[in-house]
């Protein structure tokens, strides 16, 4: 527990944390002591499993030596794989830096154990987003679908339980492998416990005993005192960048399970005839050992942090969750439910108690990051508070708050965005020549503003379609767009290289020219030619 003496208070104050906040956090920590004690006990048990596996396989300093080239007879690599197998209760293991991430490990396990004509079944709903292209749910080069491997899916029931009837109907003579994702990913379902995974595997095996049951164990290692292999899984797959790497492994993934399944994966990772014999450790093997040794403690700390944060928000009256469908963060205090869309100027509000919902509110500007500070439209707070608490007049933002006496007080601060009637007027405060597009076909310039006398922003509109153009001195990303894009490429426009990021609904571009940085953000389904034409017209 925290020692709340004056010295510690002063130290926290230097970090911007008040005594009231510290006392609040300490009280929450005390409430969680019983849960934290259970986590510590689990961490100790898992730590002993790791140590026992290392002792059994005689881990020594010689195991930390790097290998290069083919990697034949790499003592550290081979010993570590035996450690993983013993610790997780498996027959064999493949633990390699050549496996780049969790998605790669999962793709490797699937592609090595499925053949054309086989069917893959997910009985827990849609898998993690990155697997959609691996499977072929979304078309992609080299997907399972391109190799004639079909896919079936059974969604969870509304209460989060397994749809056993649906699963039974879905299993057929083609069903070769069943994939079970332990983590919720971006979905809103609960994470699956090892006990529930065991029950599902037993049910599947009762229908078709020879089916391969694979568990995506990413984020699950050492969370409980048992692992999916111990409850019947044929394969367990994960990433060293996550739990078992202990925060030290710089890369890597693992596959543990039945010897045949692991061997198939090894031959797919390297080549037929080579398998596990090749694959040098390249100087990272020591971090693999150290990370795995520390993993139970690191995981327990992460669990405590998550539980602590959840309890804090619960105390404040909020239920906070990620909404993967709309790519936003949902904040619910029982009266209002607000979703803030990442990288968009849309804010959704609905009553938590009333039936029905409102349409997204467009505020005209996406968030912007400047010098470590995130700026959002002032109107966002009117939505969060469900009343007009913020107003903007004469370039000053006014916020109404309640003090300790429940009396209204006014707090004023400068508005970082100042609007101008024309670009020529905005030019007078800018430290550079205002370069602007002369060709934005179909769109009308609706807003001219300058942020902090440094960044010029122009907003063009065509109905509900919108293009935001920004320019500023320097090289920072000024787009205000923090979405994760899968479709990213660089195109040449004249002598300028432009980074183009696309999704189904938006296009975001950033580039530099001389000492200026530019960005274009659009929700209007622009084509690359449209973007090229706009950029070419900038004078």
Explain the overall architecture.
There is one protein chain. The protein has 539 residues and is an alpha+beta fold. It folds into three domains: 45-297, Type I PLP-dependent aspartate aminotransferase-like (Major domain) (Aspartate Aminotransferase, domain 2, 3-Layer(aba) Sandwich), CATH 3.40.640; 322-414, no CATH class; 417-536, Protein Transport Mog1p, Chain A. 30% of the residues lie in helices and 26% in strands. It has helices spanning 6-14, 19-31, 33-56, 75-88, 102-113, 129-135, 164-170, 194-207, 259-269, 285-315, 379-385, 423-427, 528-536; strands at 92-96, 119-122, 150-153, 175-181, 212-216, 235-239, 253-257, 319-323, 328-332, 336-341, 346-351, 361-362, 368-370, 373-375, 390-393, 396-402, 408-414, 417-420, 444-451, 455-462, 465-473, 487-493, 496-502, 507-513, 516-522. The chain has an eight-stranded antiparallel β-sheet with strand order 18-19-20-21-25-24-23-22. Strand 19 and strand 20 (455-462) form a beta hairpin. Helix 3 runs antiparallel to helix 10. 31% of the residues are buried.
